[in-house]
Amino acid sequence: MLRFVVRRLLLLLPILIGLSILVFGWIRALPGDPAIALLGERATPARLALIRKQLGIDKPVYVQYFRYVKRIGGGDFGQSVRTRRPVVTEFREKFPATIELALAAMVVSIGLGVPLGFIAAKRYGGPVDHASLVASLLGISIPVFFLAIILKYVFAVKLGWLPTVGRNSPLISAEHPTKFYVLDGIVTGNLEAFVDALKHLVLPAIALGSIPLAVIARITRAAVLDVQNEDYVRTARAKGVSPYRVDTRHVLRNALLPITTIIGLQTGLLLSGAVLTETVFAWPGMGTWLVDAIRNRDYPVLQGGILFVAIVFVLVNLVVDISYGLINPRIRVS
Amino acid sequence: MSVAEAESRELQLEAPSGLWREAWARLRRNPGAITGFALVLLFVIVAVFAPWIAPHGPLDKGLGVGGHLLSERPSAAHPFGLDQLGRDQLSRVIYGARYSLLIGVVSVAVGLSVGLFLGAIAGYLSGIVDTLVMRAMDIMLAIPGLLLAIGIVAVLGPGIGQIMIAVGVTQIPIFARLLRGSILAQKENDFVLAARAVGVPRRTILASHILPNAISPVIVQGTLALATAIIDVAGLGFLGLGPQNPSTPEWGTMLTETTRFLQTAPYLALIPGAAIVVSVLGFNLIGDGLREALDPKLRGRI
């Protein structure tokens, strides 16, 4: 198992190098001359040349690339053009918000998707099965932001059950040691803040979780149908193993493999969807941060943000691969 | 001619059309796929004949009776209401079908053609080309789709043409991977070995023996990609990266506008959103139907 993990970590290296080349090339392709951006249109050629020398953009491309990697490796992502604060500091503030939202969406999608798919497979061909197929098809066809708008209108604007925007109410005083507001409520023992944070989380999490929910339900159903007819399941039943035990130990455990893969693949969609969901609910996370960066042409934020998200995504896939190895011993050896 | 030879000749004659004819027969019996075709047909008809179907022009302002903007509720004359400039929302959505259809088709065409080219050379040439191309695809896949598209729009600037390219580029690695995998599977077949043995040039083997057999998963993916493209384009439009002229009736952009009036005129969000759902659902249904039709093993499973 250790060898498998080490090998998988080594495979990460070329991806990270490739990613840095891609992002570096992209930065150079962005419109606008950084020297002019700093000094303004009316700068003299001499001053422009000086600032280019200071920025190092008069050097050959490969020298610039290595400087870039060195800078990034040292944790220097520059500062936001708009707020003049380091990109890393802003990232540390925004990142937990998005992770909290994404995790909540995952809880919604796995918590509902797996049982739903399982029940549909058990009642294969019946009305429950058909209903869940139709629902999951609708689920993958509704754009996240449209669902978010509907949920926001019905449950926040019309019924007023839940808040419309943000992560917490400004009126409730709360401390945030972990920056995960729901967790903060538990840690600090502040029940009011906990309930408040949870209320703000519900609608965005359902909106964001809808697509993975539909996909996970479909895949679970397909996987359970596949496994159900395996010889070992029949053997287990013939031996007189209780139906509950057959379902959990023999069927679900083996059906878990394709489900894990899909959950890993959904992470990318989740991060994409988070950008849109956060926009609808004004959730102060990575999504709104990046969208604002585009609107303000805040390129340092955009560069840092996209690189951060890509690295997070790569790491999540690493975790999925490793857990894959844990579930399926065959993968470890091959 | 021996019996075996005659049989094999007959098989060869029937094989190419057989798969498709059989698939079509299966597709016709699939109610989901038929619904999908109907929805897509509706979408295409609305897009093509928009000027004849729409009761008003997409840019006609001030159609309301009273002077107040947004004062008019949905009525028989304007079943889905008037937007903040007094434009008929239904007409705008009907014209918007043209943009969505065009953007969807063009962006998938971009992703498909580049992806197929890369996948074909990677799968067929293998070796260093394969490694280089596929590692590059891995790296592209390391950035979540919408963010990659946002990054590309940041370089190209916002606009309709730009989001078509951006969404197309995000689809390249999917097609490249798919075709490469499919080609690798086909390469092992005996008929490829036979063609090579009799001296058929590599390019001809790829074009007339491997590609036609490797293409069916690509067609399925292409249909599903149209659905994704429409959603992604609407998403970019929703983020304000779409057409820069705000009067362009693009569905995603229209939804952004409506969020501002969710308190007073929630009905405005309904029809652009429903239009996206219906067109996306149509392509998803066809894609699913095709997948089942082309791969009988999957029937009723996914």
Question: How would you describe what is shown here?
Answer:
The complex is a heterodimer of chains A (334) and B (302). With 334 residues, chain A is mostly helical. Chain A is built from 14 helices and no strands. Helix content of chain B is 73%, strand content 0%. The radius of gyration of chain B is 24 Å and the shape is elongated. The chains are: A mainly alpha (334), B mainly alpha (302). The interface between A and B is large, with 50 and 46 residues.
Series of secondary-structure elements of chain A, N-terminal to C-terminal? HHHHHHHHHHHHHH
Provide the low-confidence segments of chain A as ranges.
Answer: none
- Regarding quaternary structure, what we see is heterodimer
Averaged pLDDT of chain B, please? 78
Alpha-beta classification of chain B? mainly alpha
Most extensive contact: A-B, 50 and 46 residues
Task: Describe the structure in brief.
The complex is a heterodimer of chains A (334) and B (302). Chain A is an all-alpha fold. Chain A is globular, with a radius of gyration of 24 Å.
Throw out a few tags for this protein.
heterodimer; A: 334 residues; mainly alpha; 14 helices; globular; B: 302 residues; elongated
Helix and strand arrangement:
The complex is a heterodimer of chains A (334) and B (302).
Chain A: H1 2-29, H2 34-39, H3 45-55, H4 61-73, H5 87-122, H6 127-141, H7 144-158, H8 181-187, H9 191-228, H10 231-239, H11 243-281, H12 286-295, H13 299-327, H14 329-333
Helix pairs in contact in A: 1-13, 5-6, 5-9, 5-11, 6-9, 7-9, 7-11, 8-9, 9-11, 10-11, 11-12, 11-13, 12-13
Chain B: H1 3-28, H2 31-48, H3 50-53, H4 89-125, H5 127-141, H6 145-156, H7 160-187, H8 190-197, H9 202-214, H10 216-238, H11 251-259, H12 267-294
Helix pairs in contact in B: 1-12, 2-4, 2-12, 4-5, 4-7, 4-10, 4-12, 5-7, 6-7, 7-9, 7-10, 8-9, 10-11, 10-12, 11-12
